[in-house]
Amino acid sequence: GNAPPGVDPEAFSWFQTVDTDHSGFISVKELKQALVNNNWSSFNDETCLLMINMFDKTRSGRIDVYGFSALLRFIQQWRSLFQQYDRDQSGSISFTELQQAFSQMGYSLSPQFSQLLLARYAQHSPNPNPSIQLDRFIHICMQLQSLTDAFREKDAAMAGNARLSYEDFLTMVVTRML
């Protein structure tokens, strides 16, 4: 069939392939089967869920062809950014590259915090120099942006610090975890 109005024909074609149960929607499981990193590993479950939730306008846990088309554009923009920050063209983002990416995105984060993120999100391997794939890069950046927005709501003076109660902090984190 033909692509619906406003949907790229290539995205429509891929939607039909990814929609393995022919429901007219893409689930987290179907999305995970369709997306791969540069090292051919599947996208992480958490990242797929985060992205489905971002483009799921009905809050049904799945996306239609319009949401899928928007998601593909979103991933392509992140892939371009990822490739820009992957300076050595290794297909993954190293500690140094992550630090540079954060700096260029306007975040002033300590090396210790970047190391913590790498330890949390890198694929576990015997490699002494951990790195992250595209899916985890997207995940980190989306969460960082969301939590930064929440923090800025509390830091009206843009001083880089805010006073808040423990419950305010928990509310801020829970409501921003997409």
Automatic annotation (TrEMBL):
Descriptive protein name: Peflin
Pfam families per UniProt: EF-hand_6, EF-hand_7
A GO cellular-component term linked to this record: endoplasmic reticulum
InterPro entries, sorted: EF-hand-dom_pair, EF_Hand_1_Ca_BS, EF_hand_dom, Peflin/Sorcin_CaBP
Listed PROSITE patterns: EF_HAND_1, EF_HAND_2
Domain EF-hand, chain residue ranges per copy: 6-41, 73-108
Domain of life according to the entry: Eukaryota
Keywords: Calcium, Cytoplasm, Cytoplasmic vesicle, Endoplasmic reticulum, Membrane, Metal-binding, Repeat
Gene name of the record: Pef1
GO biological process: COPII vesicle coating
SUPFAM superfamilies xref list: EF-hand
Protein location: Cytoplasmic vesicle, COPII-coated vesicle membrane; Endoplasmic reticulum
Topological type in the membrane: Peripheral membrane protein
Main location: membrane
An example Gene Ontology molecular-function term: calcium ion binding
Keyword Protein biosynthesis: no
